[in-house]
Amino acid sequence: MITFFVCLALLIVGFFTYGKLVERVFHIDDRQTPALAHPDGVDYVPMKTWRIFLIQLLNIAGLGPIYGALAGACWGPQVYLWIVFGTILGGGVHDFLSGMMSERHDGASISEIVGTYMGKVISFIMRVFSVVLLLLVGINFSVGPAALIGMLTPEVLNTSFWLAVIMIYYLLATFLPIDKIIGKIYPIFGICLIIMAAGIAGTLLLNPAYSSQMPELWNSLAVVHPTGLPKWAMMFVTVACGAISGFHATQSPMMARCMTSEKEGRKVFYGAMVAEGIIALIWACAGVTFYNGVGPLSEAISALGQGTVVYNISTTLMGPVGGVLAMIGVIACPITSGDTAFRSCRLTIADWFRIDQSKTSYRAALSIPLLAIGAFTAVALPFDILWRYFSWSNQTLAMVVLWTGAVFLHKFGFPPVCCFMAALPAAFMSAVSMTYILQAPEGFRLATSIAYPVGIVFALACLALFIFQTYVRSGKTAQPTAQGNS
């Protein structure tokens, strides 16, 4: 219990301290935001801060902070450290920079921002990479909730039925103006999500039968994964969105198009990431506590599937009614990330080919084919394969976005200490991403004796290249401009 409270406190304190520091070094100002400069009634729609925060939270809080956290808990309470420090030093910085860079580039998609600062070749790669990742997210976040809803409804309303319903909803959410569906129902689901997390945490803490079983970090440092999976870098990728996620960078521009002040950035982007970290912490703790150990938890996930594990935890801890409410929150997470994944995919393609999205026919021409591809793939490919590839591509995108943020900060005159707030987590994620793909079953399956040193060398090479290109080749620092500093 002590470990859980300390980690929870660190996340909250991190928002008010490190988050404030990130905001300060970015030099926010009172410039006119894209939503006020040219509202179009479709994607550029001014909204209030609390509404944007709840939408951003649901956009980013898909299956990652629940499924990913449960899978990560199979390494024991050590995963709490990654959730906490990954969120504060990596995920929060990543989300804030991706959102604010978009805001200062007229709400541009992350692939266009990466192209601006990393070159045309990287821009093309990122465009393709982003579209594929967003499709994977939309597909993953349709099959998962369809299976969960199927568990709560009569047998005739099976997973296939709910998958069709979800895909129809995704089409509407992708196509219609952002304030028609997303702006109205997301805040409601956001409140449900928060209540769900609070309910699970409260039951664990207040029920002596569970609070006495909550593992402490100092008693679990020697815990290894039951199936022998290496902690580095498998655990970091498995947790996915619960600590840092490149997918968030594809979502932040949507809210950057709705903000009415730069001062909202820390609350919306950094704050939503911290909230997601708290949700991941709760579910990681719930998994290892409810099943009383990493071995039983891993066996339950393998035998029952993560959806059933979530259902069992929710209904047992909170009773039938509370369990259904908790499941609504769990189901809302992936659905409200899946629809905005398809929406963001539409916007990415539109930015790529300069297609005006204020016209109904143009939006339909992009939305319908995207959902058709998503529906076909969801039926054709197994969920576990899709999830593993999503997890790796997700963290690789986070790596690229953080390097882009570091270059952005340098280009607009921020001092080196500020640039390294992005460059150091970028180097860390470079090591994670390279090591994972070299050793993972879906990757090259190399021994850790090879994957570990290659991953570290790759990260150091990326960091050295960044230092050479910014502080050696182009001079120690750039001159401040109105874009970066005012």
Automatic annotation (TrEMBL):
GO cellular component: plasma membrane
InterPro entries tied to this protein: CstA (IPR051605), CstA_N (IPR003706)
Gene Ontology terms describing biological process: cellular response to starvation
UniProt entry keywords in alphabetical sequence: Cell membrane, Membrane, Transmembrane, Transmembrane helix
Topology relative to the membrane: Multi-pass membrane protein
Annotated localization: Cell membrane
Keyword Phosphoprotein: no
Record-annotated CstA N-terminal domain positions: 3-137, 157-285
Spans traversing the lipid bilayer: 79-97, 128-153, 159-178, 185-209, 229-247, 268-291, 311-333, 364-383, 389-410, 417-438, 450-468
Pfam families assigned: CstA
Protein family per UniProt: Belongs to the peptide transporter carbon starvation (CstA) (TC 2.A.114) family.
Name of the featured protein: Carbon starvation protein CstA
Lineage: Bacteria, Bacillati, Bacillota, Clostridia, Eubacteriales
